[in-house]
Description:
15% of the residues lie in helices and 40% in strands. The protein has 130 residues and is mainly beta. Strands 1-3-4-5-2 form a five-stranded antiparallel sheet, with helices on one face. The chain is elongated.
Amino acid sequence: MTPKPPSSTPAxxxxxxxxxxxxxxxxxxxxxxxxxxxAAWIEALRQCNRRYVTVAMDKVxxxxxxxxxxxxSLWGSTERIGTTSIRxxxxxxxxxxxxxxEITVTAAEVTLVAIDEQGKPTRIxxxxxx
Length: 130
């Protein structure tokens, strides 16, 4: 199945608040991982409206720290759609409100599996009649 092209808008856009920071003023990595997981799920839904569970997060790369006040944009693009799984690439950019600079801070590959009501893998259908 051929994935839809990447969206021209971010899957998620959020301002980093004091509650997201560690004692050194940087954002906790777990906060970023949670946002990446949510953005991957949104991208999977954009491809095919199914229930999904995350089965793997690979190649999570933290390039630069995320700071309080940064406005994060999480961009999703589908790398591959299998029979029951979908692999999504997420890029995270930060707009530094103090300097106006926009930088790439994180990237990740996420694999999700479509599941049915019983939690069993189910087929991903992206085209009518398939």
